[in-house]
Amino acid sequence: MRIRAIAPLLTVLAACIASPAWAQTAVAIDPPAAIFTARPGEEKTASILIANPGAEPTRVRVSLGDWMYQPDGQPVYLDPGSLPESASSWITFSPAEFMLAGREKKIVRYTIKVPEDAAAGTHWSVLFLQGEDPNAQPGANIATFKIRVAHTIYVNVPPIEWDGQILGIAAVPPDEPDQPIAIAIQYANTGNGAYAVTGRLEVRDAGGNVVGEAEIDRTVVLPGATRVLLANFFGPIKKGDYVILAVLNYGSETVDVAGQTVVSLPFDLVKPAPAAKSEPETQQGTP
């Protein structure tokens, strides 16, 4: 069984202090995520490239953290070591703080040491890199946006079991003919490995004929977690009763996960009108 690569994750966090004047510092990283396979007792080393895209110097601070998804896909950030699957205590990095001149790039290296008693499955952590104004003075009348970027680290400790199931599907008909059928799929990762689930929706009439399809966005689902996958199906389609079939795949070349529900349309759905193009602005007056 071949497992497709987990979609890279890039998390940008912003916090600000309200004040009349404004300054901003930012850094860029490459790559935004990395996936490793390591057995208990093994070590892995890697590096990330940190760049200052601006002209002004910035101070960069590096830290570790845990994270998880809520069912609606919103990330939750936690202290390192908060989760049972955390890999934060396995990771050391250097340097922890450094200066970047304008347009300068530097390397941050890290080492993962998997404990001898590590449980099988995917473990994960995140390296946060935060750019700060090196000239900011305490109490100064200026607001500084501290923008954090993240390098997500996944460590697969064999054996990995890939599995998942659909817990339920709901389909809500629209209020207006040019609006879509809204579909929500509750999906659970029942294995011990993180992966990206992909899929499609099929809309079938009473005779079993496929009258339309819609794509389901690629979504990362952590082991033991539940996510709600959302999709919309637009017309044209006649009024009546339809079966909504969801077909999902978590990387297997031989196994799909499927589930279905029924929706009743009280009126025909029409294709939405294209969005109106805004007229270009014209300048008036004498040149």
UniProtKB/TrEMBL annotation:
The signal peptide here is 1-23
Q: Which UniProt keywords apply?
A: Signal
Q: Indicate what this protein is called per its UniProt record.
A: Pili assembly chaperone N-terminal domain-containing protein
Please report the organism this UniProt entry assigns to the protein: Oceanithermus profundus (strain DSM 14977 / NBRC 100410 / VKM B-2274 / 506)
